[in-house]
Amino acid sequence: MVIAQLVVNGVLLGGVLALSALGFNIIFGVMRVVNLAHGDFVVLSAVFCAVVFAQTNLNPLILLPLTGGAGFVLGALVHRYLLHRLPGEIASAEASSLTLTFGLSFLLAGAGLALFGGNYRSVPFLTGAYQLDGLSFPQARLLAFVAALALAVVLGLFLRFTAIGRAIRATSQNVEGALACGIDTDRVRTISFALGTAVATASGTLMSFIYNLNPQMGVLFTINAFAIVVIGGLGSYTGAVVGAIILGLAQSFSSYFAGATLSEAAPYILFILISLLLPSGLLGRRTA
Amino acid sequence: MRRILIIAIPIVALLAVAPNRLNGYYLNLLYITVLYVGLAYGWNIISGYAGYFSFGQIAFFGIGAYATGLIVVNLQWHWILAALAGGLIACALSVPMGYVMLRLRGPFFAMGMFGLAQTSRVVITAIPATGGGSGLFLPPGSDLRSIYYWTLAVTLGAIALTMWIDRSAFGLRLQALREDEQVAGTLGIDVTLEKIYAFALSALIPGLLGGGYIWFLTYIEPDAAFSPRLDLQSVVMAILGGVGTVWGPLVGGVLMTQIAEALWARFPQIYLMIFGGLLVALLIVLPRGIVPALTSRIRRSV
Q1: Cβ contacts (< 8 Å) between A91 and chain B: which residues?
Q2: Is B106 in contact with A106 (Cβ distance < 8 A)?
């Protein structure tokens, strides 16, 4: 029974983590940029929702369009005015985008501290739990899970069936091929970064239901997203979902069997092991 | 070389007599500056010269700190001997760690090292002898002046080491593998071995510095010894000064410590935000760092 409950906890957690990882994955897939500020976008949005909830008691789901939209605009601005300006001639473009998003992460964490202070916050609503066959499903986690899943499906459909979605997938598969087909890859990059950031901030709203967060905890979510994407295979949509469930299970099992302190290291150890042993992930392409 | 000595000797002499003249606050600031410069030099070897960006060299700072503390508490060694041993232990541990971690590249190595530092913190917290999360109090054994001299010696050593690397065949081999590891391999460079050498040096320096830092705090606890802030700030300093240059970490470290300190004193609420904004702005304006920008300007005007 304990095992079954741990599986439930892990899967519910994994669903929310999957959404955040999908945002990270879009940005990496299209731009080959590891966005070290990813987790800070997540946490900033979560803390914002918690502050609004404390003031107004508003159902935080209503804030989803706002946080998502703000993330989209912010992401577009960051790409247009910062990432896009990095000179390409530097020894490795990878290192310069890494340092830029690294600085951005400081900036966002600092902005969060200045705006909201350093307190731990969460959205304390839906504190009950459904009971089913002796298993407990906390309402807040269930709601976050369902909402994350719904958003992930919408995102998947968007990438699969719209013209912009096709352009995004084409650019992530082969930049020159996409250019040859008349795709404005610069514009696609901006849209992808904006979309990835929007997904991050939207997932942050859902994280606020289940986590107690302060603005300096962003790096935890960056490494979570990175670990998930590495487990599932960089650039793979289904891979990210599978990776998230695996990470969710790893966290729920390790915190039960090894204690809260040691389970803190679970995402890190998993990340290192998978990058060493399965460099292209479980479902990734064998290239790059 | 002679020109460098003409500038360096008076500066080193000034730094050596400084504790006699400075009061507590300024000696503190000087110590922190020298510490950050040393950490930035340590990072610069593996990440600047060899091109392996690491966000986890603090692992070796923490290991050095804990090894020093445990040796003093349990074996009652003099703290300087213990700090030396702590640095060597960190360096020794870095060899197997590097052998595994250096198979990763780019962002995988960077975040993998961050994970390794966090994992080291968790593992050390789990060992009962370290006092766990509440940490370890140290017997009185040192004062700020001795800690300062120790840190100054390590940092000067790190600068000398970097000057040597910059001119040596070893440094050239590192730069070759930074530009293209495969090509470097076909030229007969044993890339695995060279990377591990660079990694071990980049572990020795923070390991030695960690052994001094605990006396500054008078206790050790996991969050202070493996402080991400210490790590990330020293990385920022090296990046702003100029990655893979001899003088970048010095310029970046001295400049940024003063800026960070002034901001911290005046605007504690928005300190981190300004610091991050400054980093982003400087990266856009001077993407290769301050030192390369200055030297290319001087060369152009000559």
Answers
A1: 51, 178-179
A2: no
Q: Which residues of B touch A104 (CB under 8 A)?
A: 276, 280
The size of chain A, in residues, is: 288
In angstroms, what separates the C-alpha of A155 from chain B's closest C-alpha? Answer: 26
pLDDT tens-digit readout, B87-146: 999 999 999 999 999 998 888 888 889 889 989 998 888 888 887 777 888 887 778 888
Q: Is a pLDDT exceeding 50 seen at residue A221?
A: yes
Indicate yes or no: CB of B232 within 8 angstroms of CB of A34. no
Using CB atoms within 10 Å of the CB of residue A102, give its burial: 0 to 12 exposed, 13 to 18 middle, 19+ buried.
buried
And the tokens for B266? 């005046």
Whole-angstrom Cα distance, residue A52 to residue A57?
A: 7
The 3-state DSSP class for residue B52 equals coil
Distance (Å, whole) CA A180 – CA B123: 52
Question: Which stretch of DSSP H or E encloses residue A130?
Answer: strand A129-132
- Chain B residues with CB-CB distance to A40 below 8 A: none
Res A44 pLDDT > 70 = yes
The helix or strand, by DSSP H or E, that contains position B136, with its residue range, turns out to be: strand B136-137
